[in-house]
Amino acid sequence: MSGKKTSIRLLGVPLSQPFTSCAWTTLQLGVPFEIEIAVPGASSKMGTKHENFQNLTSIRSTKVPVLVDGDIALAESPAIMAYLCERYGSENGQIPNLYASPGSEKKAMIDSYMHWHHTNTRSVAKLFGSKVRPDLKANVSEREHTEIQNILTIIDSGWLRSSPYIGGLDTPSIADILAYGELSTVTTTNLLSVKNFSNISSWMNRMTLLPYHDESHVALATLGDLSDDNNSTPLMKRLGAATKAGMKSILGANDEAMQAYTAKL
């Protein structure tokens, strides 16, 4: 990483699972970045439906996060995380931190999970979206609840069957960060329990020990329990406080990364 200057911008909000996964990856890689608020579903100048946001990517994405690094703008969190690892996560041509060398079995397993994630673990987000994005009208059906339990079973008895981390790996990767982003969001807010899935429970405990875990997940901790519809604090006020706290925490951690990064140049 020595000698590589960076002007990374990450657009999104800290209550977005994919945004948090990308921010946490960037912090662990020790790469400084700027954060720009982009509110999912909003048409204002800070919203993802505004032309300013849509014009960033060739596909006119309306989803967060988007990563801007020099002349490149990327959507889709797995692609962003892989790019960050390959560009900034290696030293002197060595294996990138949190990822793996091209053509290796380890990289194949990480990539396999990240492709699987799109139509499986990512669907867990509907539990959260139904609470915090009423505009989506995303009520979760009984069939979808059953599918979520099936996905947890596959993660528990498949991806985590015989190893501490996803895909038979002994060390954490961006596959773990991606999966954890979805599951921690709904467990921290008490919308889903994984207590009956021993491998997932142990894995989530291990993930909390990774660098910058707490700093990256302050927004969720601030938001708290969403299972109680009788909470006296208006939801929008809770979301605003959580977003503010999350931004402050990630920016503070980023200042540390900036100092460490500058020392290497």
Automatic annotation (TrEMBL):
Residues 103-235 form the GST C-terminal domain. Residues 6-92 form the GST N-terminal domain. It comes from the Eukaryota. The keyword Transferase does not apply. It holds the Pfam family GST_N_3. InterPro entries: Glutathione-S-Trfase_C-like, Glutathione-S-Trfase_C_sf, Glutathione_S-Trfase, Glutathione_S-Trfase_N, GST_C, GST_Theta, Thioredoxin-like_sf. Keywords: Cytoplasm. The keyword Cytoplasm applies. It is found in: Cytoplasm. GO terms for cellular component: cytoplasm. PANTHER family: GH16740P-RELATED, PTHR43917. This is GST N-terminal domain-containing protein. It comes from Pseudo-nitzschia australis. The lineage of its organism: Eukaryota, Sar, Stramenopiles, Ochrophyta, Bacillariophyta.
